Amino acid sequence: MKHRTHLLLAARLSMVLMLVSCLLSSANAQAQQEIKFAVFDTLGYPLNIFDQSSHLAGGVLKDFGDAIAKEIGASPAYVVYSRRRVEQALFTGQADMVCYFSPQWTDNRDQLFWSLPNLPQIERVVVLRDKPVLNQFPQQLFDKKIATRLGYFYPQIDKEVAAGKIKRIDLTDVPSMFRLLTKGGADGLISSEAEIEGYFKNFPEQREFFVLSKTPFSVLSTQCGLSQKSAWKIEQINRAISHIQANGEQDAMLRRYGLMAR
């Protein structure tokens, strides 16, 4: 009887161990299939939509990340970082990838793998509606004070700023840039269509007081930067992006948020 009881206990223990092993294997497989996207906390609607807990809840970049993850068979995760911490998270492998980025915007471009060009960034110059519209760059910016984002790169006017022909006023956020423009502290501001649209969504009554340049200040197809410590390969990412673009999914998500390359 004791022998039979021992056999039964041993069988049950074996089943428990097998179950635990299966669960661990499943958890490991799930962890290996995760792709972790770094998210800039400075990018708001329509690129990023954050909930009340500052977690990414929607927006163009979440839709794009979800689409990439689906293409490569991964589970997407999103971690919000301050702008200065994003690159370090990628260099150390805390995050796999960041999108809506460019080799032109970092001095550490060689430390990341770069994807195919994808989501467009179109920058425009904004002025008060009662001022002349600025459409010729950089000539019409000479001898003017232009509000820009702290830490952002503006290679189109770097030489002119360095030569003192254009005065760049760096601010930490787009609402501050609009406030400075309203108070006469700047002659114009430079920002992307996405960030401008985000400001007007939050402050719709302000739209009538400003006008955007008809000529883009810059047009750039952004890229995704992949960590060199990531288990994912840039070839996988590029195949995914190529398919998302070819099947019209990228254009559809841009239109969904009122954005489109022009």
Structure in words:
It is built from 8 helices and 13 strands. The protein is an alpha/beta fold and 262 residues long. The strands form 4 sheets. Strands 7, 8, 9, 10, 11 and 12 form a 6-stranded mixed β-sheet that branches. A 3-stranded antiparallel β-sheet has the order 5-13-6, covered by helices on one side. The protein has a two-stranded parallel ribbon with strand order 1-4. Helix 2 (60-72) packs antiparallel against helix 8. 30% of the residues are buried.
N-to-C SSE string, H for helix and E for strand: HEEEHEHEEEEHEHEHEEEHH
* Rg of Cα set: 24 Å
Shape type: globular
Proportion of residues in extended strands: 15-25%
pLDDT averaged residue by residue: 89
Give the low-confidence spans. 22-31
Helical content class: 25-40%
Total beta strands: 13
- Please work out how many helical segments DSSP would assign: 8
Summarize the main sheet: 6 strands, mixed
Ends: how far apart? 83 Å
Structural class: alpha/beta
List key phrases describing it.
262 residues, alpha/beta, six-stranded mixed sheet, 13 strands, globular
Architecture blueprint of SSEs:
Blueprint: H1 2-32, E1 34-40, E2 49-50, E3 56-58, H2 60-72, E4 75-81, H3 83-91, E5 97-101, E6 112-114, E7 120-128, E8 145-149, H4 158-162, E9 167-171, H5 174-182, E10 188-192, H6 193-202, E11 210-212, E12 218-221, E13 223-227, H7 234-246, H8 249-256
Parallel strand pairs: 1-4, 8-9, 8-10
Antiparallel strand pairs: 2-3, 5-13, 6-13, 7-10, 7-11, 7-12
Helix pairs in contact: 2-7, 2-8
